[in-house]
Amino acid sequence: MTVKTTRESDKSLLMEMDNKSAGRESHMKMRYSYLGACREGQGAVSLDKNSEQCKKVREQAAKMDPEKACARQTANREQCLQQMQQAQKRLAGMCN
Question: For 78-89, how does the pLDDT look when each residue is reduced to its tens digit (9 = 90+)?
């Protein structure tokens, strides 16, 4: 894996990662920008709400069904439901 980090400004970094593994290549580009203190409900990672990544995150969150995922749980069902609901909130918080 090769990682290249470039400072774009005093509050912005651009990171590019190239990975070659098992005959597959991938390229990822990320921009880290300091926007200020975190807001209520904001995830540790935020994505552009109109980006392709956010579209995929929203689709993934919509497919998550806590009742279905926790259907086989008996003793820990309530804990499973809470964890699934928290995961949905974290995903939703990434695309504000």
Answer: 999 999 888 888
Count of structural domains within the chain = 2
Asked if residue 40 belongs to a domain, the reply is no
Q: Tokens 């929203």 sit at which residue?
A: 58
DSSP string, the chain: -EEEEEEEETTEEEEEEEEEETTEEEEEEEEEE--SSPPTT--SS---TTSHHHHHHHHHHHH--HHHHTTT-STTHHHHHHHHHHHHHHHHHTT-
pTM tops 0.70, yes or no? no
